[in-house]
Amino acid sequence: MLRTSLLTILAGLSFSGLAENGVFNDKVVLGQAAVFSGPAAQLGIQMRNGIKAYLDHVNAQGGIHGRKIELVTEDDRYETKVAPEASRKLIEEHRVFALLGYVGTPTGVAHLPVVNQAKVPLVGMFTGAEVLRVPFSRYIFHVRASYYDETEKIVEQIVSIGGKNIAVFYQDDAYGLAGLTGTEIAMKKRNMQISAKATVERNTVKVENAVKTIHAVKPDAVVMISAYTSIAEFIRQMKKAGSGATFYNVSFVGSKALADALGWPHVGMLTKIAAGGDGVELWREIEGGHEVWTAPTPVVGLVHKSAKEPRYPSLPGIMKAKKKEIPEKDLASLGVTAGAPRAEVVSMEPPPQRGGGKILKDGDTKALAVELARLLHEEAKVL
């Protein structure tokens, strides 16, 4: 969605007069202000890496209207006092055409006045906070779910597996408050109350008081809205104190960065996690159904929406991936020593056999269109 929104803006330009800032005969300059140093650095670094990978792909195809796309970055250090100057430098010194890939709620709030005053488009902020959506700004293009949406799904998941005692650990700033408010809304909707709340200061790992407050209520689950370093320290200290809670965080945290900080295994592309025996059941969709296996805990899992929900901008990438050769490697080449299996297959079902296709070619055009819509809805089930 980030790449689609940005390239739509770029592709819609008329470069004939070259009057726009950041637009040159041979290139278009874009800017990103994000965190590239300090405890939350991986969030900005990985966002930049992803943006750069796609821009390299676009440039290899000839760029936009024959012009290559160049990315300029500034480090806002995830600090609100530093953020405005980072945006000003991109806009006034680098004179970028557009901004993208900003990271964080508190810094986002600090960047916003500069962006709005300069009337420069900002695409794809890595934050789901309502404060950056309301009031509406015509220069900000959001491409991700809000933290209200994410915390609603987290609470829904907790309740679905029997969780009732829910605590919240959050960063003491606009980002943390956005997640806390979303959790409160989701809990109130179910006539429930948060059993304990505790905070951590941004860019620190001082979680001792939070651990005491939350562990005292023996929660079934903890909803966490902070950065991966403070969350990792919070989980470590909670486990050391004997907590049996399940820990949930919003997407801003970054599941891989969190797993690396904890030194735990990381499993992605899951659609469901449930308690199962001595570990957890991990659900992943496969063609025509799903596979379920168990994994020992602790483990960090990334759960996302069903792959069956249409995401049209992803289709070109999916088609290219189908043609890409997958190399086979043995364990020794990866530095892994084979041992006892650490996963148990709970069930595995082959996909249902596909029926033959249908061709609609004879008859009234309107009637054929109606029949096609019926087949797509009732048989193919894609509408």
Task: Describe the fold and architecture.
The chain has 383 residues and is α/β, with parallel strands linked by helices. It folds into four domains: 2-141, Rossmann fold (3-Layer(aba) Sandwich), CATH 3.40.50.2300; 146-262, Response regulator (Rossmann fold, 3-Layer(aba) Sandwich), CATH 3.40.50; 264-307 and 341-352, no CATH class; 354-383, no CATH class. Helix content is 36%, strand content 20%. The chain has eleven helices and 15 strands. Strands 2-1-3-4-5 form a five-stranded parallel β-sheet, with helices on both faces. Strands 7-6-8-9 form a four-stranded parallel β-sheet, with helices on both faces. Helix 6 links the parallel strand 6 (166-171) and strand 7. Helix 3 packs parallel to helix 4 (105-118) and helix 5 (147-160) crosses helix 6. The longest helix is centred in the N-terminal third of the chain and has 20 residues, at 41-60. Residues 13-19 and 307-315 have low confidence and may be disordered.
Broad structural category: alpha/beta
The CATH C-level name of the largest domain is Alpha Beta
Oligomer: single chain
What percent of residues adopt helix (DSSP H or I)?
25-40%
- CATH-derived architecture of the largest domain: 3-Layer(aba) Sandwich
- Whole-number tally of structural domains: 4
Return the average pLDDT rounded to an integer: 84
Proportion of strand residues? 15-25%
Strand order of the largest sheet: 2-1-3-4-5
